Amino acid sequence: MPPAVRFGVNYTPSEGWFHHWLDFDLDSVRADLDAVAALGMDHIRVFPLWPYFQPNRTLIRPRAVEQLVALADAAAERGLDVNVDGLQGHLSSFDFLPAWTRTWHRRNLFTDPEVVEGQAAYLRTLAAALADRPNFIGMTVGNEVNQFAAGPHPDPDRVTSGEAEQWLVRMLAACTEGAPGRLHLHASYDAAWYQDDQPFTPGHSARLGDLTAVHSWVFNGTAQRHGRASVAAEHHAAYLVELSKAWAPTPDRPVWLQEVGAPAPLVPAEHAAAFAEATVAHALDCPGLWGVTWWCSSDVARGLADFPELEYGLGLFTSDRRPKDLARVLSGAARRPHPAPAVRTTALVVPDDPGHRSRCAPGGVVFDAFFRLVADGARPTTVLDTRTEDKDHLAARGITEVVTPDQVLPTPPGGTRSCTPPDARS
Fold it and tell me: How far is CA 392 from the centre of its chain?
């Protein structure tokens, strides 16, 4: 039997948001975690703010590390495991980078040797502090660090794909040095899968680290193009899970839906629970899903200024810890048994060349073809165009039919769409 899919939340403190590290209140944290545990969740993802923990390249604040450990221990008391994101990095539209990497000390986050060694020391220190805690899952290198490497970031730290890979390998090694035998990974926002010039590639996400993380947000053009209740919006998380498998080195590599949420106004508050229910159900139909971690635990308090409007209402709880309908949906999903999904036997061909990733993005031919298949009742996965003739690879994944985007024809009104047979293509 495959292991049960794990359910958790990205922990956003109800008091002070992530600035709570400046005024750390363990009683407040405990109250938050009581609410999370009451939903039947089994893990949280935790976000130290990098400049607060490592304000100088050679100073990792012992007191801050102690507070992180105290939070992990409080989670353990409530039956919650903990994953820790190290390099924050970027959260909810704000960048949190230490002064020793900016302005007068401006150095590339990914290639400057001193910065890289400082980052490695930081990750190793956090991992080592938690290495003996049974509820410590492992480290995520950072939250969507790829957003610093290219546009649309206003001041990117430019790198090549080779340099990005070298950096990731070094950061993951530092996590392993600190806590051997744990699950260590990295996490990118969906530009890694969709943006042609993004140096962090699908191959990096699917091949480096112990499992693949995907972050699903339908404000990326999906909901704007198709609507909140569309096949594309409700299956977007499942699409990213299945898209990642095209680059995976082995058929059994687990995929973690590490972030997914219901962003207003594209998903209005009164529809958030229905959107969550559909999104989770479709993700659970993906073989090899490690877990679902909802963004996020608590709303951002209205007293905090300058957040994008959508950030204020993403929580399962209000900022005074009242559960929403959204929380009840996630709680129900976490408590129900879920049968193992059947193998997906139909594979849609995707380009191996990262310079053509936009074909997989909203509006791209792969994206549109995938959801035409889904709308017609199929359960597609994906395969690289360089592997379509690899019989061993296809057999190992249980794939019996390979189709290209141009074979996936629109569904005629009132009828069932069919695929053009391979020998009919020009």
Answer: 30
